[in-house]
Amino acid sequence: MNSRPEKAVDIYSSNCNCAQAALAAFEDITGLSQDTALRLASPLGGGIGGMRLTCGALTGASIAAGMARGYGYAPSPEEKKAVNSLVQEFARNFKERFGAIDCASLLEKNERDGLTERPCARYVAGAVEILEKML
Q: Which of 34, 43, 61, 79 could pair with 131 as two cysteines, CB 3.0-4.6 Å apart?
């Protein structure tokens, strides 16, 4: 069986976006069907609607974090703080590893490094790997 990061890359390679791949790789934790996960994360790819804002791998995995450790209706301040802390630590770890959390900067870095292929599969695998260790 493939590892969770490998599963995410396989999903990404099937023409899904980065957010879809990151979220769908956690289906055993989220309880979401693959179809539901793919639909839910579909507008987040390419840095939210293709606008090159926050990396889709980060946003998709953040939804998985919310499904795993999130809160529901009328949360306490402590519950909110715990989820925010988890996602902030996740984003810090991602930025430490890849140098940025926004799609535009990640793609520009790829170009500066002289790489011609899109690096998104690497970011998808990395986001999933980082979050998996945190959960």
A: 61
Please give the residue range of the domain that contains residue 112: 4-134
DSSP category for residue 101: S
Q: In tens digits, what is the pLDDT along the chain, a chain of 135 residues?
A: 589 999 999 999 999 999 999 999 999 999 999 999 999 999 999 999 999 999 999 999 999 999 999 999 999 999 999 999 999 999 999 999 999 999 999 998 877 777 767 789 999 999 999 999 999
Q: Helix (H, G, I), strand (E, B), or coil: what is residue 14?
A: coil
Residue type, 110: N
In the chain, the number of structural domains is 1
Q: CA-CA distances (angstroms) from residue 104 to 29, 54, 118, 120? A: 30, 8, 12, 11
Is the pTM above the cut of 0.85?
Answer: yes
